Each structure stands twice: as structure tokens, then as C-alpha cells.
């Protein structure tokens, strides 16, 4: 039987590199494309093309060869320190939108039909996420639109773009809104890391009895999804008859101060928290998993502490290596 061929755009990134590995385990032939190779381990892809997907010529090139499924995770993005300062807005919107326009145009012109698109919970309206204890992130609450960042606006535009190509050109689009994916082999320093990685790094670098800084009052809430469950959700959705958009995230909500305390507990150190001003995003965000349970008969189930423990252990190893 002929192997299925998958194209993973953004295969050098955190989620993309894990997805490539899982597709290979499932028997696919995989072509990866990104600006860079994965940072922390060799790619599992059969073929890896280094290139910029804002170039329409590259997008047409990588669609050749009988692609069965496209996984579009390529984007200009990062954690709160990158997204919410406002300094990167033009790049974030221009680069990500251009990639999505190019990918869909190339799919249409080469006859590739099925695509998974990774949207983000950042596209949900800010006014529904002001109460840290009761955020509203059900899928239908996306409109009237009012994202809290230009990153979120671009994600919302691109969702509509994929659905338009689905209606007009028969593209089988599957759209997921990710909620804070974390785990080993993710960015853990340099300004683009997200809060679980940043806190794991700070605690790992701190001495027993030391103090770490947490942006804001620390009462802002989020839910965080372990990478293995994210990949499982991607594949469940891609191979289903449901187009989405649907949340892929955990519904185990936690405040950032309590997340820091969880990391400290895992480390075995006594750690003090100093809350300082910094870029925050919305006050509360939590994945509403009613729709994914209904449509896919699946939802994430791994407790946050299990994933954070694995992530802390991995980041501690990186900190130790960097200190040598």
C-alpha cells in the first residue's frame, strides 16, 4: 500500500517537529519546510526544505509530489513578550497572512485538497476574557470579533480565508484554535518563550530560597496543553469530517502565580514570587471543550502537573548544559 504523503509547514518549530515525529510513527512519508531546522533534536522528516513560505514560488514547489495532507503551522509568533509589546505587529500580521495566502493558492493550483490550519485562542474577544475566574472561550463566542492582539486578528482573518477556499475551491480545511501548547523541546529563553517554559527556566536557574519575577499580579489565568495531546488532537481533527473551528486545549485553568508555585513544588526548592509590570494579554483564558467532545468524541485528559514535570526536567537539563 502506498504511503500517505504529508507536508508540514513550520516543521522546524516546537509543535511542527513533534507532529513530524508522530506522522513518521504512523507510517507517513513526511516533507518538512521551515526557515530553520528543529533546535533541540534532528528532524524526523524524510525531506526537509529550508525556505521562507512568504515566497509563493517556494509554496508551489513544496506542494509537488502527490501531497495527501498539509499541516499548516508556520507563523510569526512567540509568547507574551513578543506578541503584546506591539513592536512586532507589522511583521506578525504581514508574514503570517502572506504564508496562509500562499499556501492556499498553491494548494488550489496543484490540486492538493486537505489541510489542517493552526489558529489560536488569541482570536477570542478580549471583552469575554476580562474575568480571570470566568472567561468565555466557546467557539461561537468569536463574534462579534475583538481580539486582544494583532496576532489574534490575523488568526481570525486566516480562519475565514481557509473557510472561503473550502467553500469556493473544495479545499478540505480543518481548523483548530490552540490554547497555550507546552512541553519539552519548546523555546525556553530568548523572549519568544511562553509562560510555562519561562517559569521552568526561572525556577531552574534560581537557588533554594530565591525569588523569581512574574509579570502582572499573577492572578491572570490560563490553561496549558501538553504537546503530545495537542498532536493527538490535530490528527483526530484532520482525519475527521468536521471542519471546525474547534478548540484544542486543556480545561484545567490555573493562575500564573499558582503555576509558578507548581513549578517550584516540582523543583523541590522554596521559591518566592515577585510580581512586576510586564506584557500580559487577557485576564483569563480557558479552553471550552464541549464542541470537541461532541464532534470528535475526544478531549485532552493529561493533568497539567504531569506535563509540567516533564517540561521542568527537560528545561533543567538545558539550563545545566548552558551553564557549562
Structure in words:
Helix content is 39%, strand content 17%. The chain is α/β, with parallel strands linked by helices and 324 residues long. The strands form four sheets. The chain has a seven-stranded parallel sheet with strand order 3-2-1-4-5-6-11, sandwiched between helices. It has a two-stranded parallel sheet with strand order 7-10. Strands 8-13 form a two-stranded parallel sheet. The chain is globular and about 60 Å long. It starts with a strand and ends with a helix. The mean pLDDT is 94.
Average predicted local confidence, pLDDT? 94
Sketch the major β-sheet. 7 strands, parallel
Q: Give the CA-CA distance, first to last residue.
A: 49 Å
> Beta fraction of the residues?
15-25%
Computed CA radius of gyration, to the nearest angstrom = 19 Å
**What spatial form do the alpha-carbon principal axes imply?**
globular
Helical coverage, percent range: 25-40%
CATH topology title of the largest domain? Rossmann fold
Which segments are poorly predicted (pLDDT under 50) over 5 or more consecutive residues?
A: none
| H and E string | EHEEHEHHEHEEHEEEHEEHEHH
Strand order of the largest sheet: 3-2-1-4-5-6-11
For the record, the count of structural domains works out to 2
Number of helices: 10
> Which class of secondary structure composition applies to the elements?
alpha/beta
Please name the fourth-level CATH homologous superfamily of the largest domain: NAD(P)-binding Rossmann-like Domain
The CATH architecture category of the largest domain equals: 3-Layer(aba) Sandwich
How many strand elements? 13
Q: What's the CATH class label of the largest domain?
A: Alpha Beta
